[in-house]
Specification:
The protein is mainly α and 90 residues long. It has helices at 22-45, 57-80.
Length: 90
Amino acid sequence: MPQPSAAKEQTTPDEPKSDETPRERFVRLAELRVSNSLDAIRKLGLLGNKSQYEYTDEDIAKIDAAVSKAKDAALTALKTGKPTQSSFSL
């Protein structure tokens, strides 16, 4: 019977790896988070299927404003080092 392999170190994506520099951690997390953001934006675009969803120009404007506000807040946080929070509802 094969021996069980040694347990791998379990970390969440946000946890620093023991041999990781701050720059390496930033690059790793930035790539992950930007990819996740782009995927979420792509999924948002899938709501454009008018045969499946009903929405108004006002709904689109609210979504546009919320996404723009969140993007601007994220870039401001990167520049200033002070994170912000936002929420959304139609």
